[in-house]
Amino acid sequence: MRASLIQIGVDEDESVEARRARVASLVREQAGADLVVLPELWTTGAFAYESFATGAEPLRGPTYEAMAEAAREAGVWLHAGSIPERGEAPADGGPGAEGPLYNTSLVFSPSGVLAAAYRKIHRFGFDKGEAVLMGAGDTLVTVTLPDTTLGVATCYDLRFPELFRGLVDAGAETLVVPAGWPERRRSHWTLLAQARAVENQAFVLACGTAGTHAGVPQAGHSIVVDPWGEVLAEAGPDEEILTVDFDPARVARTREQFPALKDRVLGLTPPTV
């Protein structure tokens, strides 16, 4: 199976419309790949908080349309990264009411049909930024491809292993993580990607952004990790297309040869004080 991770450079001087057209062209150039992955919030920048509301789109907005067409023309499964989604306004919100914002990932089939949408569960920022500007998703999402089942997560989710255990329990074999990860925590990015691969005996495809978002330099270094935690490929800091061939059947072989997942003990009682 061939995957292409497109590590997009987000330049604040490039309009969203120009970037959308450029990215659609990059996706079309990946014809021959099985799966193409884009980063988190590449239309606005993951740290450009002031742009979330103005750059928000309905689920089936211009980015949806452009990426659906690009996936269809390239004939690839496309994880189109995530967009700032404007949800539907509440029925009782009154005139001019706006719906909530979500950090929403879109996955398209090779025919350009939306196969899944995932609203990011863990929002970054603690008491500011994404954590207060965007609503939280509440549903785990997997997508069945001909050769593997994808488990979908986004950026900050990478720090929460229980989410990935849930995806594995739902059948995931390849964990796809688009991100806008900052350079100052790049060592965590690599460490966590490898940890999620080892503990879940799954492939991890983690696609980041390049450039600077609202003054925050991005880590880049998109990475593909195998079920033993070995790095199969890693990008540099700049815009780059990272293409790697991998064998999805290695997941089943790894889990059979080293069946650690069978030894999980669930429902442990916390100690009493």
TrEMBL record:
GO molecular function, one term: hydrolase activity
Alphabetical list of Pfam families matching this protein: CN_hydrolase (PF00795)
Coiled-coil stretches noted in the UniProt entry, renumbered to this chain: none
Keywords in alphabetical order: Hydrolase
Record flagged with keyword Hydrolase: yes
Domain CN hydrolase: 1-248
Family label: Belongs to the carbon-nitrogen hydrolase superfamily. NIT1/NIT2 family.
UniProt-recorded name of the protein: Carbon-nitrogen family hydrolase
Species name: Streptomyces griseoaurantiacus
Lineage, highest ranks first: Bacteria, Bacillati, Actinomycetota, Actinomycetes, Kitasatosporales
